[in-house]
Amino acid sequence: LTRFDMKRKSLELLTSQYQEMDVNGTVSWKQIRYANSVAIGPKSGKIYLTTSSEIAPDRVVQKKKNEMLEYIWDTLHGSKMVLASGKPTGYLLQYDPVSKTTRVLADGIFFANGISMQKDEEFIIVSESLGTNVLKFDLTPDIRKGHEPLSPTEYIQRKALLSGKDLPGYTDNADCVYDGQQSTPICYVAIISEFDGPH
């Protein structure tokens, strides 16, 4: 997760690791391997992000330009590897810019993708691409204020707003908008392709 400084025209690394607590209360640091989407809490200023998987996408040489190698991240190959593994290792993370800590809010998301924050910061929508769900995570005041690692029993429980039986294909990204008249948002999720037969 990086921040672009407009004045200095520079990037600042905010976080590349997160804290995870096991059931025994032991906290360890883990590398963010496949960061995907970001939403900023309008009330708390916390940054929420999805990580699609613990399987990182491949970094491959694309071409030479001015005698320098250019690299791209092959995210499509990465998503295929996640699908082949059959393991939902995506996370919903929260970065606190004050304490500069990143913690797990939810795990077990099968390719966590798009994320959108509701304006009152009461819930988050996450697109679970390979799980073929649109998920909702309710945020309590304690979750919004806190920054200490959560135990797995304290993780936010997911609610499926839409599932594969309700959808024509794989979800990608998410956005919630208001028209100024309503108190609840209209949320949009893109469908990137029809479901694959073997999946």
Helix count, DSSP H or I runs of 4 or more residues: 2
Q: Biggest sheet, strands in spatial order? A: 5-6-9-10
- What level of helicity do the residues show? under 10%
Strand content: over 45%
Helix/strand/pairing class, anyone?
A: mainly beta
Shape: globular
Largest sheet: 4 strands, antiparallel
Kindly describe this structure.
29% of the residues are buried. β1 (2-5) and β2 (10-13) form a beta hairpin. It is built from two helices and 16 strands. By secondary structure, it is mainly β. The radius of gyration is 18 Å and the shape is globular. A four-stranded antiparallel β-sheet has the order 5-6-9-10, with no helix packed on it. A four-stranded antiparallel β-sheet has the order 11-12-13-14, with no helix packed on it. The model has no long low-confidence stretch (mean pLDDT 89).
Provide key terms for this protein.
16 strands; four-stranded antiparallel β-sheet; globular; mainly beta; 199 residues; 51% strand
Helices and strands, with pairings:
Elements: E1 2-5, E2 10-13, E3 17-21, E4 27-31, E5 35-40, E6 47-51, E7 58-65, E8 68-74, H1 75-85, E9 90-96, E10 101-109, E11 112-117, E12 123-128, E13 133-138, H2 141-145, E14 158-162, E15 169-177, E16 186-194
Antiparallel strand pairs: 1-2, 3-4, 5-6, 6-9, 7-8, 9-10, 11-12, 12-13, 13-14, 15-16
